[in-house]
Amino acid sequence: MSYQKIIKSQQEFFYSNTTKPISFRKKQLKKFLKLLKDNEEDLNKAIYKDFKKSAFENYATELSLLYAELSHSIKKLPVWSKKNYVTTNLANLPGSSFIMPEPLGNTLIIGAWNYPYLLTLHPAISAMAAGNTMILKPSELAMNTSKLMAELINNNFDSNYFHVIEGGVAETTELLKLKFDKIFYTGSTAVGKIMMKAAAEHLTPVVLELGGKSPAIITKGASLKMAAKRIVWGKFLNGGQTCVAPDYLMVDKTIKPKLIEEIKKQIEKIHGNDAQKSEAFVRIINPRHFKRLEKLLNKQKIIFGGQTDENDLYISPTLMDNVSWDDAVMQEEIFGPILPILEYEDLDDAIKQIKQKPKPLALYLFTNCYKIRDRVFNEISFGGGALNDTIMHLANPNLPFGGVGNSGTGNYHGKYGFDIFSHHKSIIQKANWFEPFMKYPPYNSFKLKLLKKLM
Ligand code: NAD
User: Fold this and answer.
1) Fewest CB within 10 angstroms: 72, 219, 291, 294, which?
2) What is the DSSP string of 353-371?
């Protein structure tokens, strides 16, 4: 079926109002949850084929979050979708006022490869809960997971409601010519601009979940052992291919040697002396990204790791010290297992440096000083983050997830996801027994006086 035909059938289906009842949406969410759970083994196999991601990590960082989001949405849907009554102002009395969430209509969701299930299916859950139809376009770079998502969804849902279209740039370019009511895109900032331009043609609202260089600041007095544990986990999870991974460290000079020692110990503790043999260490997605990352390695600055094996698309967990903003590794989002370490003498100066860069998707602060916490969180703009941890903010469905500025626009998860796929319709409901006469011409000074009093 042509893309045009699919979207036309989705438009007709949406206009039939079938997706609107809460009972329908709940039924689909339950069906979706069952479909994923029933096929967990295949989902594990496909992602292992894509980049050797283990079943444990697939569950911990993708499937469990999808199951939780589905269960949360099923439970909360009646509350989220309720009419919300608000106070009515004097000029509108006698009457009442309410806000009514309604589905936007036909949505296009374009996913990234690094968490191929999570980043494609999580927004689809929000769109489904909000009562929309969905077309998903998973990333072609994770081809096994893309194929499996297409098989599972297209064999179990009607194409006029929920459908997967596979493909790369050519297919996405064709899709973007069509009119949708919302485009939800996860990926690079460069391609985000292409999405926004294409959407502007149809005045389609977009959500852009982009990337950037997310710093981790470690101050004097921080709990270094715990900081090292959480930094190593967040950085090397998924082979460093995580949008919210700490991209680089900005460390107080006086504690840097101790922190580095703890980080090295922690890497060896979880991955052994040779991470290539570790069950839990993910590979680089493809040769292009492998070569890109290899170019960022500066042998003179490597203080740990630095081993590569192109045949296995393996790059070991690597630390680079004495890095400055001029190094190649600081010119782009790393998106791989390389951790550059920058040092500072004065926190003011560190804050200033970070503020001069594009607003990051995440920021992590390791400190035991609440004054510093308040300063950093107030002064630096970033999507979201954590105090004394990395990444975990995205695992709380009560927190909105998204970027700001170059790292994205719009956010989702839980109620925020429901809201971003809904239109919030405002309604004034009037009584028929009174109507203010001064609203109507002919106007005079008495009417104006009354109006001024009322307003
Ligand atoms: P990408 O932008 O290359 O690809 C993402 C999607 O866009 C894919 O489905 C791809 O087919 C499509 N695409 C690529 N080029 C296109 C073009 N020219 N025209 C139309 N469509 C095109 O991104 P990626 O490499 O898959 O992901 C890495 C980036 O995504 C990183 O910057 C990372 O930080 C970011 N990211 C952000 C989040 C988030 O939630 N904010 C999550 C994961 C990844």
Assistant:
1) 291
2) HHHTSPPPSEEEEE-S-HH
